[in-house]
Amino acid sequence: MIREKERTDLMRQYADLFEIDANLDRLVKRIELLSYVNPLNIEKEKHRFFASKYSDDPEFNYPKLKFDPYKLHRLFFSQRLERIDDDEIRKLYQEIIYFYANMVQCIETVGQSRKFYYNSLGIYGTPTEKDVQNAKFILHYEDEAPSSDMEKIFSPEEARDYFEDFAQQYDFPLNIRFSTNIAADAMVSNISQTMLIKKNTTFSKNQLLTLANHEIGVHLVTTFNGMHQPLKIFANGFPKNVETQEGLAVFSEYMSDALTLKRLKELAYRVLASDSLIKGYTFSDTFDLIHNQYKLNRSEAFSITLRAHRGGGFTKDRLYLSGLRKVYKRYAKGQNMDHLLTGKVSIDYEDQIRYLQSLGLAEDITYHNLAFARKLSNNATLDFILNNLK
Which of 85, 172, 193, 298 could form a disulfide with 224 if both were Cys (CB 3.0 to 4.6 A apart)? Predict the structure, then answer.
């Protein structure tokens, strides 16, 4: 960790940069997209959709905005980047501002159908034809034999206890709270450094291992690594960081031997659900594709469809599989992952991270991913699949 005197010297040398970075930190704290895009009435609308025999599309309600989008936009673009003398750093912060301004537009239009969808595309993009081919390649494999590890028998309270025990391997605090308004069974809130557990669900033994290595082993590791960096943008997030961060998180599942073919298929279904948006599919159309054509059970099909259609069309989920492919290819080449764990960063910005480190404006990681070091992966089928993704 950087010493106080070194930090003071850096802040004096790069005073304008640190002032802008701190300003952006205050602004970004107000715009965590996932806190706005998760519907408030999931269970009610799920029941109504099933009761209608999958014909009446859900009508989701969303949290109200807690900021003025126009004023926030103005504050982002009022930053005097010309005061940053270093061309490379100035360009990085220009891209950061454009990225977060796009995020504001996205949040402003949550629930506004195609308007939100097109704003979502600006942040997360849409599946490529190669992504869709990879998804279909995975889905042609036969399901694994049933296992007791896949039985959902653990309560949210038991899940909390499991995650607390798991986190003792890491030297950072684990804050946990329950929620009924999240699409996933568990997720990390980066801004509050909190792990959220879905209250009305149950967990399997494999799922607990998967979530622990995904959410704690990567998402919280990069959260706390980012908080130890001199620049706050490492904690808040570089542009286009989701693909890298989710790729690392699923790779952590793989390296801990938690990743299953069933889980890989889930990521493939998400790609197809995201791809259905650009084709104009309604909620019931996407559900029909996943449930009736691909024969996934209705509860899991609803969850995948919900994740894709929330907000009006949310393509974030298509990045898990492509992110895993990129991280796995990197691993296969023997490349180090440490730069990607320095915070909420992207593979695309690795050169900039190295440059910031050379100036003392970024540091080596404080926390490591334990699964990466232990390398417990032992699944020949998954190895073959991952080696053959295009």
Answer: 172
Q: Note whether 215 and 249 are within 8 A (CB).
A: yes
**Continuous segment of H or E residues that includes residue 194:** strand 194-198
Q: What are phi and psi of 181, to 5 degrees?
A: -120, 40
What is the predicted pLDDT for the residue at 30? 84
CA-CA distance, 72 to 62, in Å (whole number)?
20
Residue with tokens 């990607």: 340
Question: Could you count the other beta carbons within 10 Å of the beta carbon of residue 212?
Answer: 24
pLDDT, tens digit (0-9, with 9 covering 90-100), for 254-309: 999 999 999 999 999 999 999 999 999 999 999 999 999 999 999 999 999 999 99
Cα–Cα distances (Å) from 60 to 52, 110, 184, in that order, read 16, 10, 16
Are 224 and 365 in contact by the 8 Å Cβ rule? The answer is no
Lookup result for tokens 């898990």: 320
pLDDT given at position 6: 79
Q: What pLDDT sits at residue 100?
A: 96
Tokens of 295: 């024969």
Query: Which H or E element spans position 151?
Result: none
Nearest alpha carbon to residue 127 among 28, 296, 272, 253:
272
Cα 143 from Cα 262, distance rounded (Å)? 7
Q: How many helices (H) and strands (E) does the chain have?
A: 20, 3
Contact 326, 249 (CB under 8 A): no
pLDDT of residue 25: 96
Q: Which regions in the chain score pLDDT beneath 50?
A: none
* pLDDT for 171: 86
Q: Residue type for 305, please?
A: T
Amino acid present at 203: F
Beta strand pairing call for 194-198 and 186-189: antiparallel
CB half-sphere exposure, 166, CA atoms < 13 A: 26
pLDDT digits (tens, 9 = 90+) for 149-192: 999 999 999 999 999 999 999 989 899 999 987 878 999 988 88
**Closest listed residue to residue 152, CA positions, set 300, 17, 251, 369:** 300
Cα–Cα distance measured from residue 284 to residue 55, given in angstroms and rounded to the nearest whole number: 6
